[in-house]
Write a structure and sequence with these properties.
Distance between the termini: 18 Å
Radius of gyration: 22 Å
Structural class: alpha+beta
Strand content: 25-35%
Oligomer: single chain
Shape: elongated
Number of helices: 7
Number of strands: 8
Largest sheet: 8 strands, mixed
């Protein structure tokens, strides 16, 4: 396939939803892109079930990229992912899960993955979807290309998931990444609590607590915080996620 200049192809890229007639093509693309084998039922679902946001990018009528996402209530997602939102949100608060995002090798670095992701985010940030507070995904820890892609677009790492994937029978570690939308907020960390406490203490007239003692207490606490808190803490998860998400861009 000949190399296509980004400036010449962008105007010809079209977006459309997947349909059952795309199953054979989508199977071929996913087998080329991803190390995980999906069952036939998965392809049937993402090409026909309206609960999935399954969008294809086409160039000269050929599918060159796709994104698949599903909106779920917080209480319907896996246990290890329920902490992506602050505990103050009710269980029926919705989150969007990106199952897959991929682009044909020859068309990567042309903005196709960005176009697909931006279209999904536009879909999720309309007024009728204001209850969707976060978009999240899982990615192999070794997939540095996908990690850089999401981090560049303001996704933040949430959890380290040991042995989350089973790739040809071999356990592999993963990360979860999350982007907060529609006013969504993450849970407070220990560091957040300490920051909030001292921000308010500094505005008080500390009649009963001398300033020197207060400063010493502040120094001591902040010296201990890094020892107590690690942003990449391990969590207990299901050993193998049989049909986990994959991302190539």
């Amino acid at each position: 396939m000949s190399c296509v200049q980004p400036s010449t192809m962008v105007n010809d890229v079209q977006l459309r939803f997947l349909c059952p007639e795309d199953i054979h093509t989508v199977k071929k693309l996913c087998s080329d892109w991803f190390p995980i084998e999906y069952p036939d039922s998965w392809y049937e679902e993402i090409t026909s079930n309206p609960k999935f946001f399954s969008l294809a990018a086409t160039y000269h009528s050929n599918i060159i990229g796709l994104i698949v996402s599903e909106v779920k209530s917080r209480n319907k997602i896996h246990k290890e992912d329920r902490t992506i939102l602050a505990s103050s949100y009710p269980d029926n608060t919705q989150v969007a899960y990106i199952l897959s995002l991929g682009v044909v090798q020859e068309y990567r670095q042309h903005g196709i993955a960005s176009l697909l992701l931006e279209t999904l985010l536009s879909h999720l940030t309309t007024s009728e979807r204001h209850n969707v507070k976060a978009v999240y995904l899982h990615v192999l820890t070794t997939n540095t290309t996908a990690i850089r892609f999401y981090e560049h677009r303001s996704f933040r790492r949430h959890n380290y998931l040991p042995y989350y994937y089973a790739i040809k029978g071999v356990p592999k570690d993963g990360f979860s990444y999350v982007l907060y939308i529609n006013g969504g907020k993450p849970p407070w960390t220990f560091t957040d609590c300490i920051s909030y406490m001292f921000a308010h203490l500094q505005h008080l007239q500390l009649c009963s607590l001398p300033q020197r003692l207060f400063r010493r207490l502040s120094t001591t606490v902040w010296g201990v915080v890094p020892l107590l808190y690690s942003p990449h803490r391990k969590t207990t998860v299901t050993p193998c996620e049989l049909y986990g998400p994959c991302h190539t861009m």
